[in-house]
# Entry
Amino acid sequence: MTLSAFRALAEALRAEVRKVIQGQDALIEMLLVSVFARGHCLLEGPPGTAKTLLAQTLSQVTSLHFGRVQFTPDLMPGDVLGVNLFNFQTGEFRLTRGPVFTDILLADEINRAPPKTQSALLQAMNEREVTIDGVTHPLGEEFFVIATQNPIEQHGTYPLPEAQLDRFLFKLLVDFPDRDAEISILAKGTRGPAGVMKAGLQPVMDRHALRDGHALVDAIRLEDSILRYIVDLVRATRTDGEVLHGASTRAAAALAGAVRARAALDGRDYALPDDVQSLFVPAMRHRIVLGPTAEIEGRTADEVLTAILNRQDAPR
# Structure
């Protein structure tokens, strides 16, 4: 696949998704970066902001299999991964696969399930394989998790542990669309299952094209100046006085992969400092832990990260 063909594919994906999702162009763009950077996404926002609909729409336009898990306090790891059930007729155990065996998995309200169930996704997200009763089962290389959580309701929720948060490429904050977009949504009636049918979505990519896109993104070379910029920014999170725990080397590698994907989606075989700057905050906001001083002053992770970004000299 050439860069021009990849850019045309990306534009076709954007156009199809926008048939259903209006007023969320920045979110759509970040999701495409995640898909082609082989990263998982955590979406945080209030109910009714099309988080679930976005995941369903993405699966339709990419011809990928879609699975969904509604996380609840009584959800067990086996409900996500699957279980071995004994077949009395054959006298053997047989694996009943869980919803994790898919291409795009929507982990809806992931912070409502207890930590043991949340961690069931950890191996799948990191290694694209799961172990059930001591036997390892591979998942497809296209396996992609979109997890959602509601920031408003704190009762009965379990915050994701740092180890699992680090497996998400981005934490994206989803807000309501602007006034004009909301009017357009009502006029077109493209929300919900009936709305998706009405929109007439067409698949514009299959798994072979996705693999070609992955290979193209992997081939994007990052100049030494860009690599140094990424590393310096990530290292700055570890020495900042407002940060208790900074981002890891894994975070730096994830950001580098996202930068490659953003460059390719823009039709470039090279990265710019702007690519790094636009992705730094969403790639790091869930990977740092603020110190007591920042919390007392009411500072947010985004504010601290933006300050770090502004202090760091960009390559010219």
About this structure: The longest helix spans residues 249-265. The domain at 222-311 is CATH 1.10.8.80 (Helicase, Ruva Protein; domain 3). The chain has 15 helices and eleven strands.
